[in-house]
Amino acid sequence: MGVGIEFFDREDRDMDFRRLEAFCKVYERLSFSRAGDDLFLSQPTISAHIQTLEKELGARLFDRMGRTVLPTPAGKALYARATDIFRLVDLAKAEVHGLMHRVTGEVILGASTIPAGSLLPGLLAAFLKAYPDVSIRMQTGDSAAITQAVSQGECMLGVVGARPDHAELTATFLCNDELVCVAAPAFSTAATVLPLEDRLAQPWIMREPGSGTRQAMEQALSRAGKDVRELRQAIEVASTQALLACAAAGMGLAVTSRLAAQQLLTRGELVEVALPALRMEREFWCIAHAQRVLFPAARTCHEFLVTRCSRDGCVAPQSKGL
């Protein structure tokens, strides 16, 4: 014969730990008042917890005999399982505490396209060499998309080219990034210094709205009294790689990070176009959710990126094969 505990549906199983803790203390002390003293709760509060628990379970847990309470068969059954639950919780806490002091596990890192392709490869190679028990899963997108991913908890950390205006996010400065205007060597006026108005009338290769590069360019134009809508846009692309390829193909002018363009500039596949009227610079930031606890791997990665960038600035990885 059963002990009389019957669970009806999911909503009936939502007992919380406070009520279970009160129940266990009453069971152990055989007194509502002594249980209240141990838990620093009033006797009416203890009684309310037990009554709610009995209502949820549909079973009487204690027989009241004056000031003494005795557990019913249902109470004995629940106590056995409740102590198992609390032991499992304590074990989980211990394992988490152990994990918190060991740099291991996966870091889900979001990165906008220029940091992902130019800044982070060298930094992450050094990080993984120092912490071989860590693995990194990197998601890429424009700065707006990565900011949203961190805000929604999809990424633990993010490296973006524009400081986000989100109250729930923290942003730590990494380094400055110089933007340059580039074009194919065969572009008709690449080597000529022209007034800004004339440059704006030429075909431009643009990044998509939400890109940190585009945002920095728009801000530079605004400081010069110009609007991005004055540009003659030939094509809009959604990645740095596509922008550089279009520029190298002679489709027009493009603004990008010097980090991203440096190898093509060195090989002569692109040339830098002077825009003396525009001062184009932006910053890279490492972002995280203010309300999310970072486990050691993510926290150590964050500290590593900040420390290395503070020491070395924005340095692109050296490559011989590209």
TrEMBL record:
Annotated ranges, domain HTH lysR-type: 15-72
Keywords: DNA-binding, Transcription, Transcription regulation
Family: Belongs to the LysR transcriptional regulatory family.
Name of the protein this chain belongs to: Putative LysR family transcriptional regulator
Membrane spanning residue stretches: none
GO terms for MF: DNA-binding transcription factor activity; transcription cis-regulatory region binding
Keyword Nucleotide-binding: no
Source organism, top-level taxon: Bacteria
InterPro entries documented for this protein: LysR-like_Sec_metab, LysR_HTH_N, LysR_subst-bd, WH-like_DNA-bd_sf, WH_DNA-bd_sf
One Pfam family from the record: LysR_substrate
Organism per entry: Megalodesulfovibrio gigas (strain ATCC 19364 / DSM 1382 / NCIMB 9332 / VKM B-1759)
